[in-house]
Amino acid sequence: MFKKLRIGTRDSKLAIRQTEEIINLYKERYPEIIFDIKKYKTSGDYDKTIPLAEVNRQNFFTDTIEEALLKNEIEIAVHSAKDLPDIIPSGLVISAVTKAIDPYDVLVSKNNLKLDELPKGAKIGTSSKLRKEQLKKYRSDLEIIDIRGNIEERLFTLYNSDMDGIVIAAAGLIRLGLEKGITQRISFDILKPHPLQGSLAIEVKKDNMELVNLTNSIDAREKILFVCSEYSYISQMAETIINHLYWPRFFAYTASSKQYGSINFFALKVMKEKGVDISVQGIKSFDDIQGINFDYIITIGYNEVCPYYPTVKRISWDISYPKVEKIEFFRRICEEIENKIREGLFSRGEK
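Above: the chain's sequence. Below: its structure in C-alpha cell form.
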C-alpha cells in the first residue's frame, strides 16, 4: 500500500478544489495515504488570448501535467474530464472518471435576466465553439463574444464590460461555492453540453498496476474484462482500443491464467497507426484483479474456463484470427473490435 502519493493539477482555484474533492474520495477508502498536491500551468493557462475554436491541439489543458506523470514527478493527475484529449497518450491510462456533479450549462447575467428575457442583440460571452453554435441557433440575434480565463476572471469580465451575460458550466460554479450567481440552468434542448461536463478524471501510468487498481476504486464507468487466449494480442488490442479511444464510457482489463511472450509485430504496428504504443503492455493475472466487479466479461473465440467474477453480462466476440500474418488482416481485426464496441456495447444503452 502506498504511504504518500503526489497528485498533479492545474493551479487555478477550481482545479485545486477538484483535486481536494478527489483526495477526499480516496481518504474515505484509504485514510492512511498522504496526498501531496503539485501545481502546474498548462499551455492553456499560459495562452488566454487564442479562441478555443482555433486551438489545434487537444492536450491544451493537460500537456504539462501528463509530461509530469511520464517523468515520474507525480503519481496521479486530476483533470476536468472534458479537457482530456480524445486519444490518451501512450504509457498513460484514465483509471477513473467520476459522475458529474452537475452536467448543465448555465447563464449568469446582469439583472438576473434569463435567456429568453435578454434584449435583442444582447452580448453573451463563452469560450466554447459548440455553445456559440447552439446559442446562435436558438437566438440568432445574440452577439456571441469569445471569452477566456478561469471562472473568476470570466465573472470579472462580465461585470466590468458591456456584456449582458456569460454561459458557463454549472459544475465549476458549484465547486467554487458560487452557485447563487446562476441565473438559469439552460435546457439540454437549447444547449447540449459536453458529455463529460461536471466529471473529473484520474490519470496514472498504465504500468503501475497497484496504483491503477487503487485509483480505479472510484470509477463510475462500466468495466470490462477481456479474457486472453493463445491469440492474446487480440485481447490486448481490444483493451488498448477501449482505454485509449473509448475511455469516456468504459475501462478495460485483460487477464489470463497463462503467461505470454512478446506482442505480435503486426498488432504493434496497427496500434501505432491508432496513435498508441503497446510494446510495453503486459497481461495481468487473475490474481491482479481480485475484488473488482466487472459489468462485462468478454471472450474472443476462447474456450478456456474463466474464473468466476461478479458480472452483469458475459459476452463472446466472434472474431476470426488471421491465417496469414499480413498487416491488412490486423487492420481488419481492429475494425471488427471497434464495430463490436460501437454496435454491441454502446447499443446496450447508457447506464
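Residues 322 and 332 are 9 Å apart (CA to CA).
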